[in-house]
Every structure is written in C-alpha cells, then in structure tokens.
Amino acid sequence: MKILLVAAEAVPFAKTGGLADVAGVLPKFLAELGHDVRLVMPRYASIDRGTLTPVGGPLGVPMGVIGTLWGEVLEGRLPGCEVPVWFLEYDRFFDRPHPYTEPDGQGFADNDNRFVFLSRGALEAARMLGFAPDVVHVNDWHTAAVPVLLNTAYRHDPLLGGAASVLTIHNMQYQGEFYPGLMDVLDVGWQHFNHLELERNNQVNLLKGGLYHATLLNSVSPTYARELRTPAYGYGLDGVARDRAWALRGILNGTDYDEWNPATDRHLPANYDVDDMAGKAVCKAALQRELGLPVRAEVPVLGLVSRLVHQKGIDLLLDVLPELLSWDVQVVLLGSGERWAHDAVEAMGRQGHRNFAFRLRYDNGLAHRIEAGSDLYLMPSRFEPCGLNQLYSLRYGTPPIVHAVGGLQDTVDNYDAPHHRGTGFKCYGLTYGALRDTIGWAVHTWYNRHDDYRGMQARGMRQRFTWGHAARAYESLYREAVHLKRG
Ligand code: ADP
User: What is the signed CA dihedral for 155, 140, 127, 28, rounded to 10 degrees?
Assistant: First the structure.
C-alpha cells in the first residue's frame, strides 16, 4: 500500500507526547512490512534545514479567503530507515521553537491557520510530487481537516480522490475548536458547518470534522476507544464517537525497547534483567543517594515520572501523599507541567518529609533511573489514551499502581492474590480512599507477600508491547479502510 502519514510532531524531530512516537516509529515498521510510506510534518525551528533537500519547487497551499500561501517541501529521512519525510516549510507559521505554544504555555493565536496549512499542504505536496496514496493516516485535531478535505475539495482529484483516510485519536481533550470564520479558510463550503460535521457550540471543531469524515478511526488503546463514546471521556464529542462507533478501533502503541531495556540501559548505574535482578538493588540505592533520600533497601520506593497536569491525577496523588508518607515508604517524583502543580509539589517539599524527593524538570536520564530504582510505580491518571510509563515500569520490574482506565486498563493485569497472578495494582475509581487503599495494598504486598511481588515483577518484565505488533494492526486497519473506500 501507499501510505501518507501526516502529523504535527514525530520523533526524533519534534516531540511533546505519544503522538510523536506513533508518527516517528510506525512508518519504519510499516516499511518493513513492504509498504511505501511518506511522513509529512512541519519544519519547525528545531529541525536543521541544512540536512534536508528541497523537492518539487514552490508549494502553493490554497487557504480560502487568505489566498494561496507559498511554501516549500524539504525532504529528509527517518533515522535508521529509508522512509522519506516531507517537511513543509512555511516560516511564518512554523519557524518557532515549540510546535503549539508560546513560552507561557498559551496556544499560538494562529494555530487554526497553521494546522489547516499543514493539512492542506500535505495533500498539495502529495499532488505536486505525484504520490497517490491508498490511505492517508492523520493524527489528532492538527491534521483532522484532511479527511474533510478528501471528501470535499479533493473528492474528484485524480490523484487523491480515491484515497481512504484513517484518523487516530491520541487525546480527545484537544480538539482544535476555532471561530466560525475558519470555514472560509478551509473553503469546503458552509454546508459542512452543521452539528454533524464541523460545528460545535457555534465554533469550527476540526477534530469533530475528522471524526465524521474519516473512513475509519482508531484510538491508542481498545479501552480508551470505548471510553471516548461516553460523556465522561468524550469531551463533548462522545456523540460523534457513538455515531461512528462501528468505525472506531483501538490499537495499543508499541514500546521502544531499544531505549527502554534494563539490560542495556546506559542511564543506569547497573544493568539487570529478569534472570539476574542484582543490578536493580544497585539502581535503588543509587537513586536514593542521587535524590538525597536515606539509602535503605528495606523500604519500598514509589516512583512517578509525569507531565504535571490534571489528566495525570497529580492533584489527588498530592492529597494522598501526606498519609502515604506517614507509612514507611519513600516517594520520588519527576515532572514538569502546569504552575499549580509545581507550586503544590514545592509546598509539599517545604513540609520537610524526609521520605519525599522531587525534581521539577524534564530529565530523560533521571526518568530511566526512577523506572529502574523504584519498587512500585504510580500512575493515577484520570484518563490515559495509552500511556507509556506503565509499559516501561513493567519492563523494569517496577509493578505499576494505576487507575483502571484506557491503556492502563489494557496493559496492566491486576494482582490476583488467591491465584498469585497479575503484573500490577489497579485502582477502580479515582477517589482519595480508593487511591490510598490501592497504594496501601501494593505496599503491603511488597512488605509481606514477597514471592507474589517477585512473581509480578517477572511476569511484567517478560511481557512485550511491540511496534511490530502495532504496525500489523495498523496494516489491517488501512486495508479495511481502502476496502470500504473502494466499495
Ligand atoms: P503523555 O504522552 O500523556 O505525557 P505517556 O505516559 O504516554 O504520557 O508518555 C510520557 C512520556 O514522557 C514518557 O516517555 C515519560 O518518561 C516522559 N516524561 C514525562 N515527563 C517527563 C519528565 N519530567 N522527565 C523525563 N521524561 C518525562
């Protein structure tokens, strides 16, 4: 199949979340399955122009009332494979340090035009370069206009008119909702500004348009794909998700086990694996030392690495923390994010708990050392489309304590004490009491049911969530979409 993958971010070029992993890693595995893949993304300021080659001449992108904007396509390659990446260059929109936001975290005021440009520009680039995709795979609201455009403005295009589309929802909370005038930039006709397609609350909602128009949809875990159809998780678009339930699938993300493997991890003071766990004790002592905690093998270390935002349940965890710290446990937290969360963590720090250590920054090396040096991992997310850290912690022999939602529900097996089964601890319902009790149960298990705890570690470490597996699932999704499109 010929596959055109369009995304606002992709590793290793730009990353703010899991979307970047899917966009940057999946193409490589699709190419290995024999598909002809092109990845399209913006050329942000962080991407060195010098390593790229201009292809195909000036790129005209029709932007309705704004007129045609002229950019360029610069071609690069995904590292470690031959997949071409087409970077859309239009400096007025993309020559900025962050993909979406000002330094203060505010979204750029022109994000509407920027991502309509990316959506339309990707299709124009394919036209200009003579690439006729069987399927166009787009991701989140930034590129959700593509399925709308394919069904409208490009419907009779000789090259693109026959292409099926797949929209992946990485996070339903972000929808790309803008003023109605954006319809005149999209330029697909005001008849599509209706409650089924692009309109929500009298605004243009790009994600909604994509949900309605894409041939098939998926999210990044089967459970999240079901949750999206409920008011609690659909963020106002659950109605569209319900209408299109038949078209909505769930495909778990893979894990990069080259980067996250305790047997080879270069960020760790000692390596280990399921058959020889001695190195994990070394990692624990080193972590305690690094963070200024008492070096004690006989207390459990509970680790957390996260964006500090409401979604991750940080506020509730901080509520529970004082009670938790009254037990003999240590808690280590690494994160960065919203101001209120930084303030709350710092306030907790000032209370002088000697068993609590935190670092408020983004630090990949420390993230690895926390995964390795902790005994239990905390992930009380309110919702979690897929989640990566619980997958890392499984691989690192650090049983995760999770809220049983989304990808957490799908990837963690709850500890089943009578049958000595499970890979982690699930909290059903996110309340103070439920979270405290689940953490309490995990800590009790660590202290008093050592063989069961060891068994959980081993089972988790032997599990694999691979991109090869995910790529085969995407392959069948694409085939089905092509089939549907061709009738
Ligand atoms: P999300 O994409 O919603 O942030 P995921 O669990 O899917 O959550 O992925 C988060 C990724 O970002 C993980 O690889 C995690 O290790 C990393 N990460 C998050 N915060 C930090 C931080 N402060 N320092 C280092 N890595 C972090």
Answer: -130
Pairing of strands 68-77, 84-89: antiparallel
Number of H helices, E strands in the chain: 18, 18
Q: List pLDDT tens digits, range 348-376.
A: 999 989 999 999 998 999 999 999 999 99
Considering only CA atoms, which residue is closest to atom 10 of ligand 1?
Answer: 388
* Contact 306 CB / ligand 1 (< 6 Å): yes
**Rounded Cα–Cα distance for residues 177 and 26 (Å):** 28
What distance in Å separates the CA atoms of residue 285 and residue 186, rounded to the nearest whole number? 57
32 plus 100 within the same structural domain: yes
The residue among 324, 350, 309 whose CA lies nearest residue 174 is 309
> Do residue 195 and residue 317 come from a single domain?
no
Whole-model pTM: value is 0.94
Q: Please state, in angstroms and rounded to a whole number, the distance separating the CA atoms of residues 206 and 403.
A: 30
Amino acid letter for position 208? K
335 in contact with ligand 1, CB cutoff 6 A: yes
302, 386: one domain:
yes
Domain that holds residue 338: 278-462
